[in-house]
Amino acid sequence: MRLAFCGNDNASAYNISAGVLRNVCFVDALNLVPHVFLLFITFPILFIGWGSQSSKVQIHHNTWLHFPGHNLRWILTFTLLFVHVCEIAEGIVSDTQMKSRHLHLFLPAIMGFVAATVSIVYYHNIETSNFPKLLLALFLYWIMAFVTKTIKLVRYCQDGVPFSQLRFCITGIMVILYGLLMAVEINVIRVRRYVFFMNPQKVKPPEDLQDLGVRFLQPFVNLLSKATYWWMNTLIISAHKKPVDLKAIGKLPIAMRALTNYVCLKEAYEEQKKKVADQPNRSPSIWLAMYSAFGRPILLSSTFRYLADLLGFAGPLCISGIVQGFQNTTNNTNTTEKLKDPSNSYLSSEEFLRNVYVLAVLLFLALILQRTFLQASYYVTTETGINLRGALLAMIYNKILRLSTSNLSMGEMTLGQINNLVAIETNQLMWFLFLCPNLWAMPVQIIMGVILLYNLLGVSALVGAAVIVLLAPIQYFIATKLAEAQKSTLDYSTERLKKTNEILKGIKLLKLYAWEHIFCTSVEETRMKELTSLKTFALHTSLSIFMNAAIPIAAVLATFVTYAYTNDKPLQPAQAFASLSLFHILVTPLFLLSTVVRFAVKAIVSVQKLNEFLLSDEIGDDSWRGGDSSVAYESCKKHTGLVTNGYFSWGSGLATLSNINIRIPTGQMTMIVGQVGCGKSSLLLAILGEMQTLEGKVHWSKMCDREMNTEGYFSVNETEPSFEASRSRNRYSVAYAAQKPWLLNATVEENIIFGSPFNKQRYKAVTDACSLQPDIDLLPFGDQTEIGERGINLSGGQRQRICVARALYQNTNIVFLDDPFSALDIHLSDHLMQEGILKFLQEDKRTLVLVTHKLQYLPHADWIIAMKDGMVLREGTLKDIQNKDVELYEHWKTLMNRQDQELEKDMDADQTTLERKTLRRAMYPRESKSQLEDEDEEEEEEEDEDDNMSTVLRLRTKMPWRTCWRYLTSGGFFLLFLMIFSKLLKHSVIVAIDYWLATWTSMDNENELRNAADAKNTKTYHVAVFSILSGAGIVLCLITSLTVEWMGLTAAKNLHHNLLNKIILGPIRFFDMTPLGLILNRFSADTNIIDQHIPPTLESLTRSTLLCLSAIGMISYATPWFLVALVPLGIAFYFIQKYFRVASKDLQELDDSTQLPLLCHFSETAEGLTTIRAFRHEARFKQRMLELTDTNNIAYLFLSAANRWLEVRTDYLGACIVLTAAVTSITEGPNSGLVGLGLLYALTITNYLNWVVRNLADLEVQMGAVKKVHSFLNMESENYDGYLDSSQVPKDWPQEGEIKIENLCVRYENNLKPVLKHVKAYIKPGQKVGICGRTGSGKSSLSLAFFRMVDIFDGRIVIDGIDISKLPLHTLRSRLSIILQDPILFSGSIRFNLDPECKCTDDRLWEALEIAQLKNMVKSLPGGLDAMVTEGGENFSVGQRQLFCLARAFVRKSSILIMDEATASIDMATENILQKVVMTAFADRTVVTIAHRVHTILTADLVIVMKRGNILEYDTPENLLSQEDGIFASFVRADM
Questions:
Q1: What is the CA radius of gyration of the chain?
Q2: For a surface tag, which of 29, 79, 638, 1020 has the fewest beta carbons within 10 Å of its beta carbon?
Q3: What is the DSSP string of 968-1021?
Q4: 145: CB partners within 8 A, 6+ apart
Q5: Least confident of 598-612, 1112-1126, 1381-1395, 1482-1496
Q6: How many C-beta neighbours within 10 Å does residue 194 have?
Q7: Residue 325 — φ and ψ, nearest 5°?
């Protein structure tokens, strides 16, 4: 057939006798002209432009949209493209009905499509390079196109073409579109004046785009890039080469920053406050405030959502049309269609839409649009949710900074509540916002779905819908149960963690006493409880999954069975598959509805909590700190502060402090003394304005002394600190060190300088005054070490000294120190008093107010305020008080004397050395890196060594299959097999159900012709099989969901059990080398992931993967040609998931790692409120909070943008699959049933493809936890079995207590140097032996060798004739006793602490307590032996704890006792008790003392002096002392 533009079957085609414009063909040719014109003009410009693109200045301006009407232009162009597609399709369909080809029907439309595409590409390039003059070409094009189309339209009107004809409608729409585009172009000229005007408009890019730090470009890119997240490509591809870090994601755009949104929300909230100001019982509505601040984007998102939902119904409708059309064509193949007359080649819309290929293309376009709108809706809600969260966090934070202290101390607002507000309530609201559009979109979706179903199937559709609606409440019920189970699980796991933490802290003691199994069982018990509640959790999860899968099956079953028996007409494939597809659409909103309702309820509760918090009491205005109050100039010279007639309360209305009249002299030291609880600290806080003033006044003078002129003392304008203010900021603040030390999560240096400029000299002076240097030297990174909650744990004294250092370092005139000596020992207190307070502060002439119990410092005070029961007892200098109140002075004197005696006693009790020891022990692990990585990680390390890019890339993109396999097998092979088998069976049955439906409906059509009886039988047969299959499917859904959860639980149980046992049996060296936090993390975060997160992810992953695979299999079965098209799609999918997984993992980690600092900052601020306010650092802390919030928000935004990036791409791939499936099945399909089936499955793929990738990415992150746990499972355990059986060891061994040490060599690990070298010693039964030597001489190693805690690689220790290396470890350790240097107590009763094995009688325990001088104290406690010990024994003093340890050693009647520097942490009095006890109670036992101070072993029978692992001196103390030049003698001299 020859081609001709106007067709060659019509003689009048080229006839122009009636006038050129009356010829249809000529008008069509005329329509080609504008398109060709545009292509000719723009191509050269585009190529030249692209050539010179490289020379363009590379800033973000290439994403900058300069021209007005930008979005409108894109929307119009896309509409135009769609209409062009319709025009092409219409032309081609008309053409197929002619005898010969008529190119004029579709060629102009194709050219129009190309031209429209070129126009938008051209426009985009001009816009990004900002060349407005070139837009003239487009302007001309729009005019020409408009004119030619109008001519065509007029021509149709003259010919009287009716409006119902499709071609007429298309032409009309195009005229309107070209007209609108022309208007947009004119508008650009009007605004930018680039032509026809003298002075063109100058433009500047928005602030965000000038800032190179802003990398989040979603708001700034063009519409296409916005819809497809094209701008994310660079980030996602670069993630492959190097990990995404905070620098790569940059800053938030201004409009999304927390500050911007806070201002919005705050204004809206203030509006609401004004509205309810005159109605005292109504509180302002946060809901309305949120709506007025963030309402518009929510409406936008809901609009997108509605559009997406409506387009979603195109799927079932098109399926129905295609199957129907296919059926008709197959039935009508015998009747040939009549060909149309070329002069009347018009199609009506109905005829057009009856064409199956047209429907396939429409389905494709509808899917693409639906997915684009859906993702846009998700994105807008996410962004709004993040903005809202930022605003709420800022609001909460500002409120925290203004909370009245009484609120916090009276317990109206606990720290826990504040943390919940930040961590939970704001997130609840954010999540509610994410799900919010669903609330009003879902009902519409459900109603539409039911109407369509009713149209398809009549009454029987309502039966199916009823099944779904009736089962939905069960979902809600299950969801609430899930939440409850999760809560109880959380309680148990907290308890389990507490116990695990105790075990790890006291692991050395547990091992030495062979008690590890007792404690291990206690953890296992809690774990069993936790697992029980996890079981209910798992059961409900699997029920929920089961409901999800089973309800559609049940609904379909009910519907089709009803239909079969109520209708005479057989079921058509078109009806069957369209309704199946509709059921799939209906089920989703009904399930989500239960979730959304639950979130809505939670959100309402959250808002109530927020409102209560925002309306709680605030601190009074402290304008008096500005020194505005008029106090006579004279007194002001001398006094910084005056309090006249003050009554202050902590918010209960009762005065805590009453009738206070005091003065604080400027530049001098004022001391406040008095008994515990008499209101000393309260007085400080009252002066700082933290208490409620009931009456009276606090005056702060203007600074009249020093070089300060008469500026107000405390009045800084907080909003904009001018340079002047910031320079002299320190005058307005008080350096305050609270009684309870408060540290930031920051380095030591940042804690001390606290936002002031760093001055090396001053810093050094302060750290020396507080004797911090030795502690800093112990830290792994010196003063750059992180301390605080997440950092290294310091002891109380160290924390307190850092806080005092902070107060001293600040350059303020006033310093308030609240009991700075409480946690310090005597040496440090004196040093701090002399160096820090008397020298450093007094030299600076700073005003100091000091609260203290140490009366020996009173003589240093310039002014003393004595308090009693909330009143001022006396005020004046020490001389005044001595003269006026002799009684008080005498009372003080006796107290001073007593303190001085304690002083002498205390001289040795050097608590600081102990603290430093503990610190060194905590730090020690960091020096050597743990050798626990499993072989994988070691391989990785080696591979990293040769760090060529490819290796790293391979590791970053590799799925951890090996770890997955380990996880799956740890649940047991039987369960694994059961899971795989039931999964495959379930999916086969589900496919079988649909396949059966396809054959049944196709058969029915062929059976129509047979007799009635036959038809009835086949119907019964079909219905029966269908019901059986559906029933089987429902049962299998339940079985699979249960097996997955069951397998996950078993795996979790085994992994935790193995981990705990492995850790408990690990060598002590492991605990010295691995930081405690690291081990705890395995038990907390990682175990939680294994318990709760992996099973659902695994379930979802297997389900979506199998669904996709069964769908592809089904389509390929129906039309094998589909496989050919699948290859390129498969390749695309592989690359998308590969790139996404890597980026997603990094962004997930960033999101997690930026969340913690934010939460910590909130809890820190709430704890240190008084300090922050005294220092006047609110503005700095607010700034920090905003930065942390923005950092976390940008990470979250990028994560959600990456998810959108993935979903858009997989959705488009899904749409392509639908298109190929539709086209191949229409051309090749065997019968209409299979065509419907293929299309139905192709539609489900679009929903599940992105779940496959998302779940893969999640699983990869979660498998990290399994890998970490496994790395601990590969470590060596201690060797617990000996050569002798425990039955072969005599019951009462060791009876005598005779010890022979023969040629002993000891090392900590087989690759380390020996710490003891060939030590020989003999200790007679009952001897008291002292071992001394400098630090590191091997004293402690020797004591550990008795218990085989270290590696004895040569020589032996023989106790009572048995070589200890032959004994089982448990037997050996349970027969000896030891008192350790640090006293360790566990939470539980006193009885449990003395005898966890419950072997002894009460009399024996009381006897032990009496020996340890604790009997009276324990008797006075409520419950006696059953009195509780808090965690770590915090409710007893250090000395008492050490005595408990002594009692514990005594309870175990062992003939050998080893004391490892046991007196290091106690005062002289306690030490004397200990020595007496050892001499009397242990008179008949062998006692080996490792001495810290030599005088403790002067009474021993034998002294061993060690140095570097060797014994230097070995004799009685008398003999050793007689050797003048001996080492022991020199030790004793030094100790005197």
A1: 42
A2: 1020
A3: HHHT-HHHHHHHHHHHHHHHHHHHHHHHHHHHHHHHHHHHTTS-HHHHHHHHHH
A4: 34, 35, 112, 178
A5: 1482-1496
A6: 17
A7: -60, -45
User: What is the per-residue burial (b if ≥16 Cβ within 10 Å, else e) of 128-159?
Assistant: beeebebbebbbebbbbbbebbeebbebbeee
- State mean pLDDT over 639-647: 79
pLDDT at 1256 over 80: yes
What is the C-alpha separation between 457 and 320, in angstroms, rounded? 12
Please report, as a single letter, which amino acid is at residue 267: E
**CB burial of residue 1435 (10 Å; 0-12, 13-18, 19+):** middle
Give CA angle at 534 (528, 535), nearest 5°. Answer: 90
CA distances from 766 to 96, 763, 804, 806 (A): 94, 5, 9, 8
Q: Which residue carries 């001299």 as its tokens? A: 1533
Q: Which residues pair with 1329 in a beta bridge?
A: 1488, 1502
Q: Are 251 and 211 in contact (CB under 8 A)?
A: yes
Q: How far is CA 779 from CA 748, 774, 782, 794, 1072, in A?
A: 10, 9, 5, 10, 16
Q: What is the DSSP letter of 204?
A: -
Give per-residue pLDDT as tens, 1009-1063: 556 677 778 888 888 999 999 999 999 999 998 898 899 999 999 999 999 988 8
What's the rounded Cα separation, in Å, for the pair 1486 and 688?
A: 60
Closest CA to 866 of 678, 1026, 611, 1105: 678
- Using a pLDDT cut of 70, give the percent of the chain over it: 87
Quick check: 260 pLDDT over 90?
A: yes
Write the CB contacts of 1449 (distance below 8 Å, at least 6 apart in sequence): 1377, 1378, 1379, 1457
Whether 1342 and 1506 have beta carbons less than 8 Å apart is answered as yes
In tens, the pLDDT along 170-226 reads 999 999 999 999 999 999 888 887 777 777 777 777 778 777 788 888 888 889 999
What are the tokens at 801? 């000294």
Degrees to nearest 5, angle at CA 206 with 203 and 210 = 105
Instruction: Give the residues across from 1316 on adjacent strands.
Output: 1306
* Burial label, 878 (beta-carbon count in 10 A; 0-12, 13-18, 19+): middle
The DSSP line for 756-792 is: SPP-HHHHHHHHHHTT-HHHHHHSTTGGGSEESSSSB
- CA-CA distance, 465 to 946, in Å (whole number)? 63
Q: How far apart are CA 1378 and CA 514, in angstroms?
A: 11
What's the token pair of residue 226? 């916005």
Region of 1302 on the Ramachandran plot (φ > 0 left; ψ -120 to 50 alpha; else beta): beta
Structure tokens at 842: 């007094």
Segments in 1094-1231 forming alpha helices (H):
1094-1118, 1122-1167, 1169-1175, 1178-1228
The pLDDT of residue 1199: 93
802-856 pLDDT, tens digit per residue, is: 899 999 998 888 899 988 887 676 677 888 888 888 888 877 788 899 988 778 8
Q: Which two tokens stand for residue 619?
A: 């601190």
d(CA 1351, CA 1308): 6
Q: Which residues of 77-93 are buried (b: 16+ CB within 10 A; e: fewer)?
A: bbbbebbbbbbbbbbbb
Classify residue 639 by its DSSP letter: E
H-run or E-run covering 1389: strand 1388-1389
- pLDDT recorded at residue 781: 77
Cα 1069 from chain centroid (whole Å): 33
> What are the residues facing 1514 on neighbouring strands?
1504
The count of other CB atoms within 10 Å of the CB of residue 955 is 14
DSSP H/E element including 644: strand 639-649
